[in-house]
Design brief:
Largest sheet: 3 strands, antiparallel
Helix content: 40-55%
Number of strands: 3
Strand order of the largest sheet: 1-3-2
Order of helices and strands: HHHEHHHHEE
Number of helices: 7
């Protein structure tokens, strides 16, 4: 009750001082109005056109089938040039520490600080060349050839290490 009273008093004060006429606030009010009306229209539509359980189950099964049956935990090193990636693969073959190299040389700022480690993910969460190379690896194995990066405008080459696999 106190919150409702305070909100009403603050609203009256904002209107009294003309804040509701401020261009930025007017835009925010219009967006809030649109959001409320859009939600109401969607709710009304869903009441009149409920989704059948069979439809939900079919869509669920379709999405689930597309995800595959495994999740992968991988680490990677992203570098700009293929030659540099080949050099790193050579160092790894000689026993160099993957995490250390990732922290020093990877261009992926999101995983670099973690030694190249990425979160658990299914194959579909990676671009095709990355996921195909990843799926061919055995646990603990590293790609023997650089994998061309295909994400957005960022160019480069990945060295991928499969840390673990588990059922999805």
């Amino acid at each position: 009750r106190d919150d409702l009273i305070n909100r009403e008093l603050l609203t009256q004060e904002a209107e009294r001082t003309g804040l509701d006429k401020n261009a930025e606030i007017a835009v925010q009010l219009d967006l809030a109005r649109q959001q409320i009306l859009a939600k109401a229209a969607l709710d009304e539509y869903m009441k009149k056109n409920p989704v059948k359980d069979e439809t939900l189950k079919t869509e669920y099964d379709r999405i689930k089938a597309g995800l595959g049956d495994k999740e992968y935990k991988v680490s990677h090193i992203l570098v700009e040039k293929e030659e540099e990636a080949k050099e790193i693969i050579g160092q790894l073959k000689k026993g160099a520490d993957f995490e250390k190299i990732a922290k020093e040389k990877s261009k992926d700022n999101g995983s670099k600080g973690e030694g190249g480690k990425l979160d658990w993910a299914n194959k579909n969460m990676f671009p095709a060349p990355f996921s195909e190379a990843m799926a061919k690896l055995a646990k603990g194995q590293t790609t023997q050839e650089p994998v061309k990066n295909q994400i957005g405008t960022q160019t480069g080459y990945h060295i991928i290490k499969l840390d673990d696999v588990r059922p999805l």
